[in-house]
């Protein structure tokens, strides 16, 4: 199989079908490829939500990207993260210094974000070529504030928060810093490094949750095109969006051009799709808080998922593999 998440057909046939008898009675946050969170505990007024994130790579701050993705996923369901568990798997040729550096990054971001670390483990594993970080995060939400991937409604506006491809750009810099340093001035790369905090968007989603959103969908693996598909598929609705309104930083475009990557299919933790009947009001509310936001289109009845670009209409395809996987493939081929 190709690197990345399996196709929806494979997921439904070989994953979901096998657990049908085990998920009866689960109505909200029901297991699906579009739903990233699940209910871990429940009381009369509050619900504990959990989510799992696994990332592979060579970055010493790989755990930070995994934690950001988990925190954002919980926030999109109306929950505030309060703690994590982390497991690190290293290739057998890795040194202890790599493990220590990764744990320092995890410890620092947890302290900064007020997250407790419930459990941490590390092991060296045969048969892998890069580090793998798995994070389980827990958060708490009030029942009346809970949202799901299928909560989006037809006839509402789609707001894009922050920039697509930011996470992927940062991770490419870590993997291919030497090659990029030959093409770009140090100030160019340093400017991007200063943007790492933008991969956390829990504050933006907390604001949106108080301003009438019907659904929020963090943009992760597969980029904005995958996120648009997942959001619409989960809710059983259509959409119409304009490519030119999707905010992307010039630095991301230039880094993608170097490696011939599509920024619209690049992992984008920090960027969020929000569906709301009050798009302009939400956009201005976020901008007053210093958070970039743009209306990129609207949801529709039916199943048509349309993208407008350059005056042309095309239909949104099913999610493709994330472009970041091509960076790892190029490195593997170069080392073969």
UniProtKB/TrEMBL annotation:
Residues 154-306 form the PurM-like C-terminal domain. It holds the Pfam family AIRS_C. This is PurM-like C-terminal domain-containing protein. GO terms for biological process: protein maturation.
